[in-house]
Amino acid sequence: MTTAVSVPLTLLWSQAKYLKWLLITLLAGLILAASLHHWDLYYDLYGFGGITPFLFFGFISLFSGVLVFGMEYADGAESYLESRPVSPRLVFTQKVLLIGLICFLSGVAMQIILGPSARPLYSVVGAFYFSLALWCAMFSVLCRDTIRGVLYGGTSFVVLTSMIYFSWDPLTRDTFHVTPGGPFESYNFNAHTYPYASLGILVSPFVVMGIFSVVYRWRRFGNLRMTMAATMGAILFAGYVGFTSWALHTDGQTYFDAGNRRNQSVLSYFVNDESVVYAEISHLIAPNKQVLRIMKIDLKDPEGSSEEVSKTIITHEPVYTNQQPFLHEGYLSSERLVLFGNDVTPVRLFEMDEDYELELIKEYDIVKGVHNQFLIDDHTIFVVAANGYHSSVDGVSDLYLLHLGTGDLEKTERRPQRPEPYVLPLEKNLEYWVKTHHRIDPDHPWKIVHNLPNGATEVVQELGPLHSYVFVEDKIVGFQPDMTWQTHRAAGDSRRRLFLYDLTDPTEPSIIEIEIPIRFKEAYTRLYSFLSRGASFPKPSADSPLPHLSVTFDGETLALWATELCRVAIWEFREPAAPQFLGLAPTPAHWQPRAPEGIQLWGTAWSQFYGTPPSYRRSDGAIGYMGPIWLEFPALMKEADPS
Amino acid sequence: MTEFEWTQLRTLLWKEWRQVRGLFFMVLAILAGGPLYLAWVEGITQDTDSFLVGLFQIAAFLGALGFGVLSYGLEFNDHTDQYLATRPLAHPRTFLVKTGLGLALSAAVGLVASIATLLVARMMNQEWTYIAGEIAPYWWILGPCIYLAVMTAILAIPPIIPSLIAACLIALGMVAMSMKIWALPVLLAPVFLFLSYQLAYRRVYLAPAR
Fold first, then answer.
1. pLDDT at A321
2. Taking CA atoms, what residue in A is nearest to B131?
3. Is the separation of the CB atoms in B66 and B21 below 8 Å?
4. A166 in contact with B at a CB cutoff of 8 Å?
5. From B159, which residue of chain A is nearest by alpha-carbon distance?
6. Which residues of A touch B37 (CB under 8 A)?
7. pLDDT given at position A607
8. Within 13 A of A461's CA, how many CA atoms are on the CB side?
9. Which chain A residues are Cβ-neighbours of B164 within 8 angstroms?
10. Using a CB-CB distance cutoff of 8 angstroms, which residues of chain B are in contact with residue A162?
11. Which of A85, A136, B140, B191 could be B111's S-S partner, Cβ–Cβ 3.0 to 4.6 Å?
12. Confidence (pLDDT) at A536
């Protein structure tokens, strides 16, 4: 056997002797983990008790680092190793690889215990353990002792990681502000950063190894200089910081107008030239009481946040059923507020005066069960007072038309005709309309149809297929899939193209593709698929493609909301054919702006039908959406106030 | 007790303190550093991650484990155990100084961890036992129990590596036990105290000369 082979094998054998107790413990831990996997202990362990197996395998990893590097000092083998005809780099690499293998096995054991659905997955846990082991090994080399390596290395690693952990949150949400500040119901602002955090953990062993290699060289040869591992670690670290900063960068700042809205729900709102007025209702403040507030936002005031203009206590009749009266649906117009009841409370109609004070003018005792209500126009609401949960099926619902102006409640026998969501009449050219048969099937694209004088119709032009569309002012904005729906979902919903069809002149429609910034979703999606392929993140399932995108468009401002990414992309349409990209801004996770109707629209998704939450502008250029939130983009703010 | 004996005791106490003070300050850095750093970065509010209070529990655990390992483990590791046996101090007094300091520091760290948990939980407007677990108020007594168990493991197993692994496992076991029946570690503490006293005598004073 040549020296090149025998020396590393001898070294490996000597390391194995140091590690025998540890390897026995790891083997026992793996067997125990496999046994636990067959028991239904997942929830016990993943809760507070999950810290025990995590610490157990953490200790295994920690000891592996300390023993592999520290025992040579304990046994006085340092000088012997130096006398061997083997490169110090090879010794270092071999020891690091051995530690890496043990940490990887520890990560696998944790994965077995926590189950396949737990996150993060074993490669991330293994990488975390690897960093811990290398860090403690570095301390054992620094102190030339195993015990001090374990204690000082372990403790300082806790300090280091907690500092990084607590720095991560503020770093990733420094452009999101909750006004007026103070304690607020917890919103998850940074769920979209988890893949980037996982990537950071995967990169961390290389960075720690770089630092360690410099320390190792210094302790062994007495000279302090950059090693190849340190250079590689520095490059990886710089690359990671650069990529993450680019991908998580936002152009605008978001102010979430919390007001006093802790435990409050917005019911409905309307916008006029100078203000936004909205109604909000509190959760139950007593078993039969809720607070109804009318709030106003002054659009002329740059500092303006929500201001309470009237307050009414809503009292319910005491009930002794399992269901507490709890109202959360209503409709607000400039003069009326309808508060819909539930199966134990009546529908109430309020009159709102110029000072926004509410006065109850009528109560409608149509309590029979679950209510559904639909806005037909600005003055009429169709109300279904169902008699029990299944009454709409068996046809015993009572149907009413509520006329807001007069307050009359008219019983009706038939439902109003449901608008056809896939047939959209144009506003400026009444003899034209657009239609499709299926909203996502590429075989059924949108068509512009012309009503001929003889009553027949002709297809003027075929447009591409669009889905998740918004139709406003003869413009349709929506996504055009570039593959079949099935492939599209399997690909993780990442390949979508956003198009605007301007049908102002239906004979010559213009079609504009709106470029979505790569960092908005591509960076996230591709990183997500990269991590899931490497078992560092859960694989995306066909049922939950990510990130989910939805569009709001009011003719002037186009917003693309990515709820999982906690971000919104905004375009402004000053010239119809040239949308101007304003930038990205953060949003709370799983948050979308509220439509003004405050009640159910026809269908299920507001973005696909008539209703789309409109934006409103503050005098300083900030864009508002009902939540309420304000998006401040430097370009708009500078334009509104050049000083 | 003579002046000479007092001097010997104080000298031993000073030596023990020098051995553990590095770890003690590191644990204090975890306990105080987390809240201070967070207060400096963004303040502690209702939205603060409850990992902060988990960190206090980890600090109390690491403190008890570390003090337990350092008490006699460092003597064996640095081969100073036989030197210790030559000091003109009886074993009960040596044991009392070493164990007393370890117990006091473990209890102090546990107490600070419990108080820090209580204060931070109040700032977060949460129940402290809800976010930190039912054992959060008892770290001042659980820490010393873990310390005794760890010290016993270190004394019972002569090779340093198996004894370190056993010490970590027994410390984890004590925590797991306390989650189910928090009084169990307290009931076991006198047993560990007795065992460690006997084992220390055997390992330090009756061991054959190297």
1. 54
2. A48
3. no
4. yes
5. A21
6. 163, 166
7. 37
8. 13
9. 63, 146-147, 150
10. 30, 33-34, 51, 55
11. B140
12. 67
Structure-block tokens of residue A461: 């032009």
Q: Nearest-CA distance from A162 to chain B in Å?
A: 7
Q: Are B140 and B114 in contact (CB under 8 A)?
A: yes
Please name the residue of chain B whose CA is at the shortest distance from the CA of residue A18.
B161
Tokens at residue B161, please? 């590596």
Nearest in space to A563 (alpha carbons), one of A593, A598, A605: A593
Q: CB contact, 8 Å: A152 with chain B? A: yes
The predicted structure's pLDDT at residue A390: 42
Q: Which two tokens stand for residue A642?
A: 């050049």
Q: Are A11 and A91 in contact (CB under 8 A)?
A: yes
pTM for this entry = 0.76
Number of neighbouring beta carbons within 10 Å of residue A512? 17
pLDDT surpassing 60 at residue B26: yes
What's A408-460 look like in SS3?
A: CEEEECCCCCCCCCCEEECCCCCCEEEECCCCCCCCCCCEEEEECCCCCEEEE
pLDDT of residue A253: 85
Q: Which residues pair with A382 in a beta bridge?
A: A374, A401
Which residue positions in chain A have pLDDT lower than 50?
Answer: 38-49, 181-187, 388-394, 483-494, 545, 601-610
Q: How far B190 CA sits from the closest chain A CA (Å)?
A: 25
Question: Which of A363, A362, A382 has its CA nearest to residue A372?
Answer: A382
Any idea which residue has 């789309």 for tokens? A612
Q: Which residues of A586-598 are buried (b: 16+ CB within 10 A; e: fewer)?
A: bbbbebbbbbbbb
Cβ contact, residue pair B77, A22, below 8 Å: no
Q: Please determine, for residue B136, whether its predicted confidence score (pLDDT) is greater than 50.
A: yes
Torsion of CA A426, A427, A432, A437, to 10 degrees: 20
> Given the structure tokens 């989650």, which residue do they identify?
B179
For residue B160, the chain A residues in CB contact (below 8 A) are: 74, 146-147
B162 neighbourhood in chain A, CB within 8 Å: 21
With CB atoms and an 8 Å threshold, state whether A49 touches B37: no
- Residue A557 has which token pair? 């401002």
User: Tell me, what's the ipTM?
Assistant: 0.82
* Average pLDDT rounded to a whole number, residues B97-121: 91
For residue B161, give the nearest of A67, A156, A170 by CB distance: A67
Is-contact B154 B176, C-beta < 8 A?
A: no
- What is the rounded distance in angstroms from the CA atom of residue B205 to the CA atom of residue B83? 10
Predicted confidence band of residue B153 (pLDDT cuts 50, 70, 90) = very high
Structure tokens at A197: 């955090």
- Give the gap in angstroms from C-alpha A226 to the nearest C-alpha of chain B: 29
Cα A250 from Cα A395, distance rounded (Å): 52
B173: CB partners within 8 A, 6+ apart: B149
Among A450, A454, A485, smallest CA distance to A467 is for A485
Predicted local confidence at residue A452, as pLDDT: 82
Q: Which of residues B125 and B23 earns the better pLDDT score? A: B23
Instruction: Answer yes or no: do B162 and A183 touch at CB < 8 A.
Output: no
CA distance A500 to A576: 9
pLDDT tens digits along A301-317 = 877 778 889 988 888 77
Distance CA A235, CA A227 (A): 12
- Determine how β-strand A623-625 pairs with β-strand A616-617: antiparallel
A486 in Cβ contact with A458 (< 8 Å): no
pLDDT digits (tens, 9 = 90+) for B73-89: 888 888 888 888 888 88
Q: Which tops the pLDDT comparison, A59 or B132?
A: A59
Question: What is the phi/psi pair of residue B137, to 5°?
Answer: -75, -10
Q: For the residues B39-54, what does the mean pLDDT come to?
A: 70
Q: A16 CB near a chain B CB, below 8 Å? A: no
**CA–CA min distance B56, chain A (Å):** 11
Smallest CA–CA separation between B58 and chain A, in Å? 9
CB contacts < 8 Å between A and B, how many? 101
Q: Which residue do the tokens 């009237």 mark?
A: A310
